[in-house]
Amino acid sequence: MKRALVCGAGGFIGGHLVRRLKDEGFWVRGVDLKHHEHAPTAADEFIIGDLRDQQVCRGITEFAYDEIYQLAADMGGAGYIFTGEHDADVMHNSATINLNMLHRVQQTGVGKIFYSSSACIYPAYNQEDPENPKCSEESAYPAAPDSEYGWEKLFSERLYASFHRNYGIQVRVARFHNIFGPYGTWTGGKEKAPAALCRKVAEAPEGGTIEIWGDGLQTRSFLYIDECLEGIRRQMQSDFMGPVNIGSDEMVTINALAELAMGIAGKRVFLKHIPGPTGVRGRNSDNELIHQELGWRPSRPLMEGMVKTYNWIEKQVSAAQK
Q1: Where are the domains of the chain?
Q2: CATH topology for 3-179+223-246?
Q3: Which of 88, 100, 161, 187 has the fewest beta carbons closer than 10 A?
């Protein structure tokens, strides 16, 4: 039986990934600072541990794995990333985790290690036009991410590439573009746009008002979690190191995303635009490289994933209000 380690298994993507790996027959060890908040883990073994601590990293890598998935990071939505209030923690915490894990992999060996980078590494100067952003993989340089979160991700991409060159570690790097779905953070300030808007619509009365940061004309694309997992597994089963985008190319404005949530809810609410962190004006996944290398493109429309996500969040809202 193949063995896999999922770092960040208590998070949204990590929790789903553990279940996918178990379905494929892996023995899975998960590690995180916390248990998953919204679902029991499917891992064979789950360790509560801080990957910033080298002793914890030693303890979870006492044997070699066939595959390691390094998803652990200090992160959140725009309300967490773009205010600037958490920059030092974001950079220190995430970089320390990656330095620790690669050092241990160098010492113990592994079949392959996957690193989850982000679309936030792309230069802000290529994302000023909301209707025509440029996010092809080679456009990452000259570097100019719009947040310290993006700078740390770019540094860590180079860190993984360096360990590959110098120590022969088989790394796989993918840049995620706004992954969403059920069983993720939906309140508290770290949630991303799809979850935040689903929650706001679910909480609002008919004819009520919800707040949108900025003018709502900023554009993004959002990829449903199951599609993300398929992209990850295809890359890990291939010889393609990356970095490569894993995202949707169905671009929408934030206003349109809110309208989508209203349509699913069967409820009309009004949008109130207020000042707030918005990030770049436009971002969309360029999927030419992943299609060329892995034969993968997203197969599901945004609406399908939003229906599943809204229905799950509506249940959480209803339970919280009781």
Answers
A1: 3-179+223-246, 182-221+250-282+300-321
A2: Rossmann fold (3.40.50)
A3: 88
| pTM strictly above 0.90 | yes
Is 69 in the active site?
Answer: no
- Give strand pairing partners of 117: 175
Task: For the chain, give the number of residues.
Answer: 322
Name every residue whose Cβ is closer than 8 Å to that of residue 141 and which is 6 or more positions away in sequence.
none
Please write the tens of the pLDDT for every residue from 217-272.
999 999 999 999 999 999 999 999 999 999 999 999 999 999 999 999 999 999 99
Q: What are the E-state strand segments in the chain?
A: 3-7, 27-32, 45-48, 65-70, 110-118, 171-176, 179-180, 209-213, 219-221, 223-224, 244-246, 251-253, 270-274
Q: Which CATH architecture has domain 182-221+250-282+300-321?
A: Alpha-Beta Complex (3.90)
What confidence tens digit (pLDDT) does each residue in 303-315 have? 999 999 999 999 9
The conformational region for residue 115 under phi > 0 = left, psi -120 to 50 = alpha, else beta, is: beta
Which among 115, 122, 149, 160 is annotated as catalytic? 149
C-alpha span between 212 and 201 (Å, rounded): 11
Burial (CB count <10 Å: 0-12, 13-18, 19+), residue 180: buried
Question: Could you give the CA distance from residue 101 to residue 54 in angstroms, rounded to a whole number?
Answer: 8
The DSSP letter of residue 165 is: H
